[in-house]
């Protein structure tokens, strides 16, 4: 059974904008799936449906076979969403408080929360900043803080929405390393990005969205040839997948 199944998912906003239409997708446990598509193709709206932050106009999302609207709290525990702008995810006065927010809200036992915060900060190598204000972190560190906040909720599936936006090269390397580590430790990864050259060498599967529809789905090496016609730049050179970060593998 897929860990995540999207069935005929359609979202129409009150102003009539059809943001996504008739999306069907099955994701297996442990997969590393990249979702690409031009601006406005519906990637973020799709992501917001995966842990119940938006409700479908039509269709549904199943986690381990269960519709997520049956138990939204369980869905938020299973699917962690790392937002596009890490500043939007900051909720605490300090780095440690920020990471504690998620598990506290999911009613983890208070005695456990302190331990989870320590583990999560250590996992992304931010322990030394525990008492600092989140706003005093660099772009890459803020993104890692957002990841720690998600890890603290112990999700099986992690969705990253454009995690490389605004990062310099060392920031990209830090965040990509962390994503690859999470994949290796058994998490199912959905990575939304148009920066395919950074990730494609690591992906099991590539999905392309265009005008709210899922227009291609398959092995990166076969789907990538169709990417450019949908406005996604192709990271191929001499027929080979190129990744500036292949050495990270
Ligand atoms: N709150 C909203 N109200 C109306 N339309 C929206 C809203 N949010 C997004 N949209 C529209 O839905 C479409 C998909 O948006 P989005 O998922 O953010 O695209 P992407 O993340 O692929 O750039 C766009 O046409 C966008 O204008
Ligand atoms: Mg987006």
- What is the H level of CATH, i.e. the homologous superfamily? P-loop containing nucleotide triphosphate hydrolases
Helical segment count = 8
The name CATH uses for the topology is Rossmann fold
Succession of helices and strands: EEEHEEHEHHHEHEHEEHEE
Architecture in CATH? 3-Layer(aba) Sandwich
How confident is the prediction overall: mean pLDDT?
90
Question: How many domains?
Answer: 1
What is the C-level CATH assignment? Alpha Beta
By secondary-structure content and strand pairing, the structural class works out as: alpha/beta
What spatial form do the alpha-carbon principal axes imply?
Answer: globular
Give the uncertain stretches in residue-range form. Answer: 242-249
Proportion of residues in extended strands: 15-25%
What is the number of E strands?
12
Task: List the main descriptive attributes of the protein structure presented here.
alpha/beta, disordered C terminus, binds magnesium ion, Rossmann fold, four-stranded antiparallel sheet, six-stranded mixed sheet, 8 helices
What would you note in describing this structure?
By secondary structure, the protein is of the alpha/beta class. It has a single domain (4-90, 139-248), classed as Rossmann fold, CATH 3.40.50. Helices cover 32% and strands 25% of the residues. It has eight helices and twelve strands. The strands form three sheets. The chain has a six-stranded mixed beta sheet with strand order 6-7-8-3-9-10, with helices on both faces. Strand 11 (236-237) and strand 12 (240-241) form a beta hairpin. The protein starts with a strand and ends in an 8-residue tail after the last strand. Residues 242-249 have low confidence and may be disordered. Bound molecules: adenosine-5'-diphosphate (ADP) and magnesium ion. Adenosine-5'-diphosphate (ADP) is lined by residues 13, 15, 17, 19, 37, 39-45.
